[in-house]
Design goal:
The protein has helices at about 10-20, 20-35, 40-45, 50-65, 85-90, 90-105, 110-140, 145-170, and strands at about 65-70, 80-85. It is mainly alpha-helical.
Length: about 170
């Protein structure tokens, strides 16, 4: 992408690529939710992203090389979005952001359980997750361990606990 940058500072350059609110949310949803189609990203967004903003961010993330886009063979008008190696390498950054958010913001338990597991698992878990993401998005051989399944199982377990607690309060 041919952009004029404000400075050559690596933090500035990273923020110019990722710094708006929605770019990392879209990457998060592709990465942790395995949402690969526009409609999935739009309808399953916790933050209720507007359709025009989602379309713009997907286009921009493809342009800067953080997502790739290919036609969906099952449907002529659908596209499949995939993470690229640079976006897969964001796993440690997202893990640190999640840990910081858990420490300093009023998170919900269900939406913070993945961040907790990533923080507790540290670099070995991040590496295993990145290996799995490469298999899902770049076509490398699938690893034996599915971190994505572990994160989803923890999320579903917390959701079930929350629903159980809500039912107990109603009784």
């Amino acid at each position: 992408m041919n952009m004029a940058y404000r400075s050559g500072c690596p933090i500035n350059l990273t923020l110019e690529m990722l710094g708006d609110r929605w770019s990392l949310i879209v990457i998060r949803d592709v990465m942790f939710g395995n949402r690969r189609h526009y409609r999935e990203l739009l309808t399953h967004s916790e933050e209720k992203i507007a359709s025009n903003i989602l379309a713009d961010r997907l286009k921009r993330l493809v342009e800067v090389g953080l997502l790739s886009r290919r036609d969906d063979p099952s449907h002529k008008q659908k596209a499949i979005y995939s993470l690229t190696e640079p976006s897969i390498q964001l796993v440690p950054l997202l893990a640190h952001m999640g840990a910081w958010g858990r420490r300093y913001t009023p998170v919900s338990r269900p939406l913070s359980i993945r961040a907790q597991l990533l923080e507790e698992g540290g670099p070995p878990l991040w590496e295993a997750f990145m290996e799995e993401l490469r298999a899902l998005h770049l076509g490398t051989p699938a690893p034996a361990r599915s971190v994505l399944a572990e994160l989803q199982a923890a999320y579903l377990a917390v959701m079930a606990q929350e629903e159980g607690a809500a039912d107990t309060l109603k009784a």
